[in-house]
Amino acid sequence: MVSVRGIVQGVGFRPRVHQLATACGLQGWVRNRSSGVELEVAGPGAAVAAFLDDLQRQAPPLASIIEVKVTERPYRPLAAFHIEASTRESQRRTLISPDVRTCDDCLRELADPADRRYRYPFINCTNCGPRYTIIRDVPYDRDQTTMAGFALCPECRREYDDPGNRRFHAQPNACPRCGPRVWLERPDGRIEAEQDLAIRRAVELLTAGAIVAARGLGGFHLATTATDEAAVRRLRGRKIREDKPFAVMFESLEEIQRHCRVNARERDLLLSRQRPIVLLERRPEPAAAAAIAPSVAPGNRSLGAFLPYTPLHRLLFEDSRCRALVMTSGNQSDEPIVTDNDQARDRLRAIADWLLLHDRPIHIRCDDSVVRVVGGVSRPLRRARGYVPAPVLLAHGGPSVLAVGAELKSTVCLSRGREAFLSQHIGDLENLETLRAFEFTIEHLERLFDIRPQLIVHDLHPDYLSSQWAEHQPLPRLAVQHHHAHIAAVLAESQFERPVLGLALDGTGYGTDGTIWGGEVLKVDPAAGTEFERLARLLPLPLPGGSRAIREPWRMAVSALVTLDPPHPTATYPDFFARWPTAAAAVLVQMIRNGINSPLTSSCGRLFDAVSALIGLRERIHYEGQAAIELEQAITVESGAYRGRLDHVDGLQVINPLPILTELIADIRAGVAVGVMAARFHNGLVDLLAEAMQALRDQTGIDTAALSGGVFQNAYLAERLEAALHRLGFQVLVHREVPPNDACIALGQAYLGIRHLARTQGKDR
Q: Range of 397's domain?
């Protein structure tokens, strides 16, 4: 008997087992179980050994084997090797494949007029197509997916039952005769065209500059021609999205290379089966007939580019003059991506001119993943389609926990033994629709992986919706400090078991002292469970107006000027205060001086905001992190570095950027180019942080640094700081599987929750 665990259902594993066993002349059977795949083989010992070797070496491309258990039995003759019906047990331990881009074989059939699936937008096989987004339960059989309502026609049934066919037991298998259909609707609900005519008409409309809401794999996209400035502006206006960059789907890699610089690692990511959005450097003068419209990514030197990953996407580029389409999430501002046709009719009607719909239900929403290559290594910024629900493998297992994450970039995480199932991106947990998506995701993952958590782990912040939700659940709870969870997430995915100096740089996190943290060095020891030691922090700055200062970086600029401590800030810096409303600025000065609605924050994100506003780049933001992103984008010439200072206050090392700000102000007044000042600020901050880490290594003897937090989405800073730490002899742990932003918080919480249970239950025994 052989039991196989891993991603072995829905990936052509049983057909491959059948082929290998038959080739080795073995008897027996194979079947899906709720715990994975089980098989029994009988034959000569050498043939069985060869089969077991081939099983691991020749697994299907989408399979991922975690464990193979072999139990030898006395020989008994079996029937000719065959595939048996699936069995369903109470305990389910199988893994589920993420959704996969359309394979080359299916693309060839899609383009072949002689093929019965010619131009069929739902073509798929065991090597490609929907998986996670259509599965309701395990084992992965058709009646457990959203394809249950589509009965196979005789031809599709013959393929499905043929072990030698590429579609053998391909659960989403279908054709125009028996499968899902697509149609084009006007906003008033009238059907304009169906099936292939609908796609051809959609292509005509997109070419003419229309906005089309297209139902895809994990939800809706809002699409329009990326080279049509008027169309892109219209989309921005209707979606109420002023500046945040749109992603662009290109017809081909060659087309991307005409607009962007693409290195070997970025090329591999663009062509990978995950097909994420990849942040690329734009060419100053694109080698293309039509430039990308300025409003696609206003003032941004990077572009989020990706390639078609479904048959429908491919068909939208056929017979079209469009070579690039804006493909942005189909939702209203601050809401989850729309998945349902009726939802689209209700919520996207005011944005889209047309609706391109289909009738294959989407069971779980899943946005496009986003990655960026830093220092030659892929770093996820949003982990969703193509990657979820593959688990993060932990160094040690333990009791199951549910971690509910932070508030922004919400994800949840459920653990099962050594497997941590981090959910897809859910959104910012700030409204009812996102809360519903959050709850549905938890229920779905618990059912899919048969997890019954013993503990809920949440953020220390009492006002987070996730924390409040946790309080109302009938399970023990554990509150974890935000930045501790950040560093724990790095430890979790790195499977690192020794103490580290954790550098957490982000926008905000509730500290154990009730203040707002965001620029911290923590001593984190995996053996210490939920305990950690705060060793250093950025010099705190007042946050005048509280959360309003996050939306208005000019307030942080005022805060920085006041913190420099001149007797009369408006008189000392009249050239700066002249930019801002006189009365409002004067009120801010008094608020800061008197500590009125101006909580202190050690946030690195707010320091970036202050510098961005002082330089004159961004005084008000329209999306999270905009000021910091534009400050990185402004860098043109690497020329020197401002100098900071290390102080010590109340036993804490204080990373003091005030000297950096003093030099910056002098450069602003001297008329130094913005790109040079942006570089000097980044370089100076890198030097100061590296100096702080070196001093703490001397103090603690710890020579491993773990880096996490949204600031590390800044490729310039991340790459240079990692290099500086390596030069100082540090081992540096960074995120490679999960994002450095708050999307990793749930993983870190789960890791700490498992450690907490292991310690407390061990003491109880």
A: 391-480+741-764
Spatial separation of the C-alpha atoms in residues 598 and 125, rounded to whole Å: 58
Residue 501 CB contacts under 8 Å (≥ 6 apart), including other chains: 521, 522, 523, 535, 693, 696, 697, 700, 702, 704, 705, 706
Taking the C-alpha atoms of residue 199 and residue 537, their distance in angstroms, rounded to an integer, is 56
As a whole number of Å, the CA-based R_g of the chain is 28
The rounded distance, in Å, linking the Cα atoms of 765 and 761 is 6
In whole angstroms, give the CA distance from residue 323 to residue 287. 13
Question: Residue 322's pLDDT band (boundaries 50, 70, 90)?
Answer: confident
Rounded (10°) angle between helices 604-615 and 674-700: 160
Q: Are 39 and 17 in contact (CB under 8 A)?
A: yes
CB 1 within 8 A of CB 38: yes
Same domain for 555 and 676, yes or no, is yes
If you search the block for the tokens 């000297």, which residue do you land on?
659
CA dihedral 232, 234, 235, 240 (to 10 degrees): 120
Determine which helix (DSSP H) or strand (DSSP E) holds 222, and give its type and residue range. Answer: strand 220-225
- Rounded to two decimals, the pTM is 0.94
Among candidate residues 83, 106, 128, the one where a domain is terminated: 83
Task: List the structure tokens of 46.
Answer: 């050498």
d(CA 108, CA 646): 62
Residue 643 tokens read as: 């100098």
Q: Of 741, 760, 746, nearest to 480 (Cα)?
A: 746
Where residue 11 sits, what CATH number does that domain have? 3.30.70.100
* Residue 254: how many other CB atoms lie within 10 Å: 10
Q: Are residues 607 and 708 in the same domain?
A: yes
What is the rounded distance in angstroms from the CA atom of residue 383 to the CA atom of residue 737? 8
Cα angle 418, 422, 426 (rounded to 5 degrees) comes to 170
Both tokens of 621, joined, read 């933001």
Q: What share of the chain is helix, strand, coil (3-state, %, to 5)?
A: 35, 20, 45
**Listed range (85-89, 331-335, 652-656) with the worst mean pLDDT:** 85-89
Count of residues making up the chain:
765
The arithmetic mean of pLDDT across residues 489-499, rounded, is: 98
For 501, what's the count of Cα atoms within 13 Å in the CB-facing half-sphere?
25
Question: CB-based contacts of 474: which residues, under 8 Å, 6+ apart?
Answer: none
Domain end point (choices 33, 50, 83): 83
- pLDDT tens column, 186-220: 988 999 999 999 999 999 999 999 999 999 999 99
Residue 19's identity, in one-letter code, is: Q
Residue-wise burial string across 279-317, b where 16 or more C-beta atoms lie within 10 A, e elsewhere: bbebbeeeebebbbbebbbeebebbbbbbbbbbbbbbbb
Q: b/e per residue, 198-216, with b = 16+ CB within 10 A?
A: bbbbbbebbeebbbbbbbb
Regarding whether 748 and 705 lie in a shared domain, the answer is no
Are 544 and 659 within one domain? yes
Same domain membership, residue 573 and residue 450:
no
CA 193 – CA 663 distance, rounded (Å)? 64
